[in-house]
Amino acid sequence: MNLSLRARVTLTAIAVLLVVLPVTGLTVKAVFDAQAERSLDSLLTGRAQLAQQLARQNVVPGNLVRRVEANGVRVTLTLRNGRQFGAPPADPGGTVRQVRATLQAGQQTKGAELLLTADTALLADASARLRTVLLLSGLAAILITALALAIGMRFALAPLDAMTGLARSIAAGRRGGRLQPERADTELGRTAAAFDEMLDALEGAEGTARRSEDRMREFVADAAHELRTPVAGLQTAAETLIQLGPDATTGQREELELLLVRESRRAGTLVADLLELSRIDAGLQLHLSQVDLRHLAEAQAARLRVVAPEFAVEIRGTATVTADPERLTQVLANLLDNARQAGAHRVRITVSPAGLLVEDDGPGVPPPARERIFDRLVHGPHSKGAGLGLAIARGVARAHGGDLTVTDRPDGHPGAAFHLDLPTTAGLRRPE
């Protein structure tokens, strides 16, 4: 049944009345009938007792009958000699109640038989009238209740109407409306307060989603812009090779082929970094084991001696942590490459159980840019990369339950100090 809450409450109340009123009416009628029967019995018994008292007072039969008679009670007194006083005896029937008694005193009345008769038709009439009154009053109660509910429910459910109106307003695009109940300790007040809290959360989530969408749109645009450069280089080199054809000299061909390799490698690196960032966003899966941080740093120093012999790496300290060795290698490699691309010539790596400290002698990072450099596709003034290395490094660090930050060098020398903080084994956040 597609009924409104107002209609359901009204019908439920009327249904309850339809059950309660008949039960109450039947109970009242049964109590009335029983009480009327007891009252009639008490009346007849009392009249019989009065007759006994009058007989003891030696009241003559005629006076005794007149004094015992009452409204609705007929008295027949038959003396021992057969003489009768009062009304003639009534035939016993379904509507007649009779009480017999033998008088125990009096000169004329001793041994006389007293017959008291009451007509129960009056009780039946009273019971019928009571039934009619109960029926009419019950119908009136139902009609009045239905009318009162129809009017009262409009006011009682006004908060729900306000809630419905607000929901429709929000669905239409109007934000910021709230119910703001005056009392939050009632059922509807608590519902309205919870509704306002839900709207706060939804609008907050909507704002966050909108900002995330804007950042994603900006990120995609920046990624497309970054990819445009190597793709344009590939296209230019390929078109030049085609145009030169067999007439190209060996030097020209080698130069163009080198450009193709360099630009394709650059595009491949950018795509790989973008895929890495998507994995971090989806929840990076870590393969944890015991990692010797000094051995990891020495391996990166050996790599740099091959690719950049002029770049000096100094390593201090030793420590073993529980982490993903490949991911930590990726972080350290990004930090070292970032320092080299920023113009540093010397790097010092300090190993400790708390993580790694990578200090370089480059231009450093000014305080206003120390958070922005970890954003995606953000280039420093001296950077030559795509602006994804530090974002990936911080994502890996946070996937381990740690963090990556940058400050000035602790010794006061020019340059930057990157702090890779790793948690203890007990606090390490393992992947789901």
From TrEMBL:
<dbReference type="Pfam" id="PF00512">
    <property type="entry name" value="HisKA"/>
</dbReference>
<feature type="domain" description="HAMP">
    <location>
        <begin position="154"/>
        <end position="207"/>
    </location>
</feature>
<feature type="domain" description="Histidine kinase">
    <location>
        <begin position="222"/>
        <end position="426"/>
    </location>
</feature>
<keyword id="KW-0902">Two-component regulatory system</keyword>
<feature type="region of interest" description="Disordered">
    <location>
        <begin position="408"/>
        <end position="432"/>
    </location>
</feature>
<dbReference type="Pfam" id="PF00672">
    <property type="entry name" value="HAMP"/>
</dbReference>
<dbReference type="InterPro" id="IPR004358">
    <property type="entry name" value="Sig_transdc_His_kin-like_C"/>
</dbReference>
<dbReference type="InterPro" id="IPR036890">
    <property type="entry name" value="HATPase_C_sf"/>
</dbReference>
<dbReference type="InterPro" id="IPR003661">
    <property type="entry name" value="HisK_dim/P_dom"/>
</dbReference>
<keyword id="KW-0808">Transferase</keyword>
<dbReference type="InterPro" id="IPR005467">
    <property type="entry name" value="His_kinase_dom"/>
</dbReference>
<dbReference type="InterPro" id="IPR036097">
    <property type="entry name" value="HisK_dim/P_sf"/>
</dbReference>
<dbReference type="InterPro" id="IPR050428">
    <property type="entry name" value="TCS_sensor_his_kinase"/>
</dbReference>
<dbReference type="InterPro" id="IPR003594">
    <property type="entry name" value="HATPase_dom"/>
</dbReference>
<protein>
    <recommendedName>
        <fullName>histidine kinase</fullName>
        <ecNumber>2.7.13.3</ecNumber>
    </recommendedName>
</protein>
<keyword id="KW-0812">Transmembrane</keyword>
<keyword id="KW-0472">Membrane</keyword>
<dbReference type="Pfam" id="PF02518">
    <property type="entry name" value="HATPase_c"/>
</dbReference>
<dbReference type="GO" id="GO:0016301">
    <property type="term" value="F:kinase activity"/>
</dbReference>
<keyword id="KW-0597">Phosphoprotein</keyword>
<keyword id="KW-0418">Kinase</keyword>
<dbReference type="InterPro" id="IPR003660">
    <property type="entry name" value="HAMP_dom"/>
</dbReference>
<keyword id="KW-1133">Transmembrane helix</keyword>
<feature type="transmembrane region" description="Helical">
    <location>
        <begin position="133"/>
        <end position="157"/>
    </location>
</feature>
